[in-house]
Write a structure and sequence with these properties.
Helix content: 10-25%
CATH class: Mainly Beta
Bound molecules: flavin mononucleotide
Strand content: 35-45%
Radius of gyration: 17 Å
CATH architecture: Roll
CATH topology: Pnp Oxidase, Chain A
Length: 174
């Protein structure tokens, strides 16, 4: 087989355009988080569904952040961030932190500001404060591996789900 030319290398194979990729990935349901960080005195947050546990010992998790994501540079520069796991009923919060503008996202969504920690959304079911362990460039995203430092189990509840671009209720998804 001959090697791909520069021309063929930039042409996505059938079924692999960004739109088709997003649709395929959307078939895999996930939970929803808001990743938070301080940028000086300003609290920043962005909705992130590409989150998962990585290891138990040490306690590691990962999030994948788009190159334009407003939280990405402050996390890399500051070395700490928070993961707020959302609960069923937090759909409007997820939308507010997942769309422009990136200012005013915390309006109507208060948070705790513990010394030295990322903002903890009061509505989150679980909050995990993390230190950046490693980062790994991956296409237009950056994989950020964080080490859990402190966990707050704020409330017991059913999780917010994300599937095919919408937030189905857990009962109807089962
Ligand atoms: C349900 C949902 C899940 C998202 N998951 C991610 C994600 O995993 N990684 C990411 O970088 N952006 C994700 N986003 C998009 C960011 O939240 C969004 O790009 C950002 O908040 C928009 O503002 P910005 O471009 O200023 O950061 C998601 C958005 C929504 C609504």
């Amino acid at each position: 087989m001959s090697p791909a030319s520069a021309e063929t290398a930039v042409t996505p194979p059938p079924g692999l355009t960004p739109t088709e990729w997003r649709a395929a990935m959307g078939a895999f349901p996930s939970g929803v988080t808001v990743v938070t960080v301080w940028n000086g005195d300003a609290a920043l947050g962005a909705t992130v569904s590409s989150f998962c546990s990585v290891a138990l010992e040490p306690p590691l998790l990962l999030v994948c952040l788009d190159r334009n994501n407003v939280v990405r540079d402050p996390i890399v520069e500051g070395g700490v961030f928070g993961v707020n796991i959302l609960a069923e009923g937090d759909q409007s919060l997820a939308r507010q932190f997942g769309s422009q503008p990136d200012t005013g996202r915390f309006a109507n969504h208060p948070f705790y500001a513990q010394e030295g920690e990322a903002p903890q959304l009061i509505e989150a079911s679980v909050f995990i404060h993390c230190k950046v362990e490693t980062t790994h460039p991956a296409g237009d995203h950056l994989i950020v591996v964080g080490r859990g430092v402190r966990i707050v189990h704020a409330k017991a509840c059913t999780p917010l789900l994300y599937h095919k671009g919408s937030f189905p209720l857990l009962r109807s998804a089962l």
